[in-house]
Amino acid sequence: MDKGQKERQARYYSKNKETIKARVLRWKESNARKISDYNRNVRAKKRREKEEERIRDSFRSKADNEREIERLLSLLDEDNFKECSRCKVRKPLTAYYKRKGTPDGLQYLCRSCILDSNKARKDKCNI
Fold this sequence. Notes:
By secondary structure, the chain is mostly helical. It has five helices and two strands.
């Protein structure tokens, strides 16, 4: 941008300052929903990146724990899915019972696998 162009821009802005401000305010009002969604997504992405970095930092000294790192990062998956330890199927978090002692607060097995094992145990006892 040359010097003459900058001067023209400055003159235009000084003459039309109120009009430009009003136009910007109208645009912000008409796009408020899009702006708030964008900001929310950006904040969520930054939180996720920060959490991933924290997890990676906690395991940097242990190179053989790559699988553990990937497992912990999968807990942060935006899709809110988790893999069952028994059937190895990715299911939504609602398919798991709660368990306070685990890192993610959910059982390792999905509800259907737990119900199957409970039924098998009952059948075995009633032989």
